[in-house]
Amino acid sequence: MPSPTTRQAYTDIYALLDRCLATSSGIRIKVENHDKAVFLRMRIHQARTITREDNARIYAEQPDHPMFGASEYDKYQVRIRCDDGPDNPTWLYIEPRTADILGIETLEPRMEILEWNPEELEPPPQLISPSGSAPSPKRLEYASNAPTEPSSSPDSTKPEPSPETQDLRRL
User: Fold this and answer.
1) Which residues pair with 91 in a beta bridge?
2) What pTM was estimated for this model as a whole?
3) C-alpha span between 32 and 40 (Å, rounded)
4) How far apart, in whole angstroms, are the C-alpha atoms of residue 71 and residue 55?
5) Secondary structure, 3-state, 27-63
6) Do the Cβ atoms of 34 and 90 come closer than 8 Å?
7) Whole-angstrom Cα Rg for the chain
8) What would the pLDDT profile of 60-110 be if each residue is shown by its tens digit?
9) Which has the closest alpha carbon to 29: 41, 45, 11, 47?
10) Which of 72, 94, 140, 157 is deepest in the core (most CB within 10 A)?
């Protein structure tokens, strides 16, 4: 069977929610078991939905009003807490919504952020000019940090002949 959609079916729930509004930390309700807590939580959510729908009708001419389609009870969350053991109670908490935030810090800039203008930068050096001529010496000094003296190591692009390699013919 669907839940009732009239405000009169939830007068007990509105009394609980109004008690929450009167406190800064919310309330908790002791219930018989987890199933009863789930049912009560569903009724609380349905009561809030009815309030939102009522406020949407009340403020239909003012859609920018903060209460248009909202409920004064929306700032509360509903949680179920079950203690371990068969004789331990089940509690339904109705308390202000928090994001479980432990702390907030303001981030201060650690260094100056500079504007980047690509037009102020020199173009990257070219090792081969578009015309095919050799690049200017000024450009070469930016091109590489390679040593200017000849290297004593063998050229890595030419493989060294292996002493085991002989001129073998395929048959």
Assistant:
1) 30, 81
2) 0.56
3) 11
4) 7
5) EEEEECCHHHHHHHHHHHHHHHHHHHHHHHHHCCCCC
6) yes
7) 38
8) 999 899 999 999 999 999 999 987 766 778 999 999 987 777 777 777 766
9) 41
10) 94
